Amino acid sequence: MQATATKTAPILSTRDLWLEYSNRRGTVKAVRGITIDLYRGESLALIGESGSGKTTLGLSLIRLLPGSGRVRSGSILYEPDGRTQDILSMSEEAMRRFRWQEIAMVFQSALNAFNPVLRIWDQIYDTVKAHDGMSKQEARKRGLELLKMLQLDPERVIRSYPHELSGGMRQRVLIAVSLLLNPKILILDEPTTALDILTQRNIIDLLRKIKTELDLSMVFISHDLSLAAELADRVATMYAGSVVEIGPVNDMFYRPRHPYTVGLIKAVPTVTGDYRELFSIPGSPPDLVDLPSGCKFHERCDRATKRCHEEEPELVPVGDGHYVRCFSAT
Amino acid sequence: MARQMREIIWRTIRAISTSVLFTRLAKGVMTVFVVMTLTFFIIRLMPSNPIEIYINQLVSQYGMSFQEAKNMAASLFSIDMDAPLYVQYFSYLGNLFRGDLGKSFLSQGTPVSSMIAQFLPWTLFSVGVSLLISFSLGIFLGMTMAYRRGGILDNSLSTFASFVSSIPNYLVGILFLVFLGVRWKIVPIMAMRGSTSPGIQPGFTITFVKDVFFHATMPILTYVTTAIGGWMLTMKNSTVSALGEDYVTVAKARGLRERTITVSYVGRNAILPLFTSLAISIGFIIGGSPLIESIFVYKGIGWVLWSSISTRDYPVMQGVFLVITISVVMANILADLLYSKLDPRIKAGQG
Lengths: 330, 351
Description:
The complex is a heterodimer.
Chain A: E1 10-23, E2 26-39, E3 43-47, H1 54-60, E4 70-78, E5 85-86, H2 92-101, E6 103-106, H3 120-130, H4 136-149, H5 154-159, H6 167-178, E7 185-189, H7 197-213, E8 217-222, H8 225-231, E9 234-239, E10 242-248, H9 249-254, H10 259-266, H11 306-310, E11 316-319, E12 322-324
Parallel strand pairs in A: 3-8, 3-9, 6-7, 7-8
Antiparallel strand pairs in A: 1-2, 1-4, 4-5, 9-10, 10-12, 11-12
Helix pairs in contact in A: 3-4, 4-6
Chain B: H1 2-18, H2 20-45, H3 50-62, H4 66-76, H5 85-97, H6 112-147, H7 152-165, H8 169-183, H9 206-243, H10 246-253, H11 258-285, H12 290-295, H13 301-310, H14 314-342
């Protein structure tokens, strides 16, 4: 998976990363041995059903795993300019400064992303103050600039309390705030899920604008394939905590190889496309506490053979930068 | 010109009458009036009356004959108990509008207002200090518990908090009196009676302040012990739910300092729901606690209320109840206005 179509060097990579949670029933293996690279300037989409480990992976990149979540093994390497930092071994204070300055994250629940008792400006200034390097005037100027870039009325919005803004506006404010410190990487966790369809459209357009105007690497975490199709350079399909297929966006959508990716794409209704029956993948995602043997997808797969029950396939190349974890795909 | 003037006046009146403060105050005045009327009649429905109780006291204390006692009582009381209730009510109401709370039946001729002025400060002091201590300490401990939930500290403090908050404060008072004061003789309970030591000069001297605190120690200790548990538990719950809010996670992701998150993200939001109960508690400061003040013979307004109830001193009872009602109503209005300042999502008058 080292060699991909993208030529530049990776800015962020995970190496055989295992993440788990404890709950009453046992250990939830949320992420199982993911090795993935994010290249400078590219946008990578992680797609998959709820519970496939996408968000856990995203949160681990800035070491914000909730409650009982922990890293079992593996490493996360950040290589912005030749030097390599291991995110998992940074001190708490270094990590605090690192967050938002280097990697910012736009959360799914923008409705609640802001402290309800503080004005947007206070929360912008909060963020800037926590990372020295910008004066109050500069912070204000930068804040207004970004709000304007996100097509908001900057002077009004900066004075508002979060409840005075609509859901779509709040999401845009959060994206603006995420760009405040010029991070090198932006992680967007379901940036459009909580919004209505027109607002979604608007956010996607804005994100495309950000992508072309700013020198950023982006990670989209989404179950919305259209978002991935429009914004990503590369797409990775996650299933039961591991990457089952990864490749350039066109290969993934036009020549998907893994039966799970095929199912996900077939499950999306098209407005303009041909009439066809909507497809759904039978069964439900596996129990992450008690995983099935062999290929984790075999229980839901129509191509499953005896081998799939016994052995977990490796991620193997099937094209230029296109890898798949399936016996029948090769 | 005249028409314009009239219009301006009308508009001003309309603006005032629809303003939040005005409607709240109007509601408040109504509440006070209704409560005052109810207390007037209810206390007169209580069995027995001041004269009977006084006669019984004279008979049992001095061994007077009933007739002798009755004559003596009649000469002391200039009350016409036989006048119809509504006549008494309207004369009380009339006096009230002139700011006259009436005179005590038993402390012959002492105006109720001067009794309140004399005893109220002691209650304000002791209950106010207790509220300050129990609220701030409770908030602090509650947040600590929430941050360390599940640990030994949290478990032991939670047990303590639910234990003390489930015992009525007068029982705690009696326990303190019996064990600290009588059995183990740790505190000089007799010397602590009253609100100050006899003969001490009031003023801003160290001796006086020390003396004031000395006499208020036991009531304050009792109030704090019984009130702190509630604050701790409410604050803990409220903090736990604030900690689970998305904006706290986002604040962490934004790289804010831990202290900023604790104070202005978690604490600030967790404390909001406690303000309503704080305001209500402030209102009840005036009422003090008749039982606690009687147990420790701390001469505050609660003690006055307690003794006026047992002697059926109607004007005193009514005066104290009126002051309590007004303060509770005022505190609620204040809480409402303050809350809308603290939480931008709430507009004043919606609560």
